[in-house]
């Protein structure tokens, strides 16, 4: 029989791993957004496929609680951001 302390410790470690995974995905998502923005700024073709694939993984983690949901990104959202940034 495990002690309450061991159970709490295991739960805490699981939550920490959950948050670490989310933070790693958040960083990858930000890099993917930056890449799409850079292409858009150069009037090069771009997609949000990679951003949204990462977002889906983040939202899977969010369903377990602890971490927030993220919105999927559209090409129009990227274009609007670039337009605002250039003004």
UniProtKB/TrEMBL annotation:
> Which source organism?
Bacillus zhangzhouensis
Query: Which InterPro entries has this protein been placed in?
Result: DUF2533
Question: What is this protein's name?
Answer: DUF2533 domain-containing protein
Upper taxonomic classification of the species? Bacteria, Bacillati, Bacillota, Bacilli, Bacillales
């Amino acid at each position: 029989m495990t002690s309450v302390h061991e159970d709490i410790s295991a739960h805490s470690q699981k939550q920490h791993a959950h948050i670490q995974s989310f933070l790693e995905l958040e960083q990858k998502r930000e890099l993917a957004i930056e890449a799409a923005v850079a292409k858009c700024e150069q009037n090069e073709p771009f997609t949000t496929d990679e951003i949204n694939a990462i977002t889906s993984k983040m939202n899977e983690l969010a369903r377990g609680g602890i971490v927030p949901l993220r919105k999927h990104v559209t090409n129009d959202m990227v274009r609007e951001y670039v337009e605002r940034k250039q003004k």
